[in-house]
Design brief:
By secondary structure, the protein is of the alpha/beta class. A 5-stranded mixed β-sheet has the order 3-2-1-4-5.
């Protein structure tokens, strides 16, 4: 009986914990497109694929991954850097001033602050960076979540975008 109770407890805890590659809510790209970027401009729709990276200004893994993204900028893909306040301000590591400085150092990445609703629609990624690739129709085609797989290399990103015609 004790074993059964322990098993039920463990299964219950597993169900409550975030799962790698949590399914994003359909239409999440449209929700991001309906928000404003760091400069107050509406993100708006695009007719091509979109790569979204959830990042924080202080995150060393994010900075490493941005080097890879910078190397594939010649592909015809829109890149959005999504900044969630909960990640940014984790343990008092960052703030809005740090995000602005980050955006100034990375002018090719359009920075989009998101609220709780959009963060939840993205599956509430617990680890950063987490990357999403959306096709021309806004459908999610690839997720790179550090809990489940290592961040993609330049070659992996290029191949994923090539499959989308980018």
């Amino acid at each position: 009986m004790r074993l059964l109770v322990s098993l039920v407890f463990l299964l219950g805890c597993a169900a409550d914990s975030p799962q790698p590659n949590a399914v994003t809510r359909p239409g999440v790209l449209a929700e991001i497109e309906a928000t404003r970027d760091l400069d107050g401009r509406l993100v708006g729709a695009t007719d091509g694929p979109t790569l979204v990276i959830v990042f924080a200004s202080w995150c060393p893994h994010c900075k490493d991954e941005l080097v890879e993204l910078d190397s594939i900028r010649s592909h015809h893909v829109r890149m959005l850097g999504v900044n969630y306040r909960g990640h940014e301000e984790y343990d008092h590591r960052g703030n809005s001033i740090a995000v602005r400085a980050f955006a100034d150092r990375t002018p090719w990445l359009r920075v989009v602050p998101i609220d709780d609703a959009v963060f939840t629609a993205l599956g509430s990624p617990a680890q950063i960076p987490t990357m999403y690739i959306f096709d021309r129709s806004g459908a999610l085609v690839e997720t790179y979540d550090r809990r489940a797989r290592k961040p993609p290399s330049r070659a992996e990103l290029a191949a994923a975008l090539a499959r989308l015609g980018a």
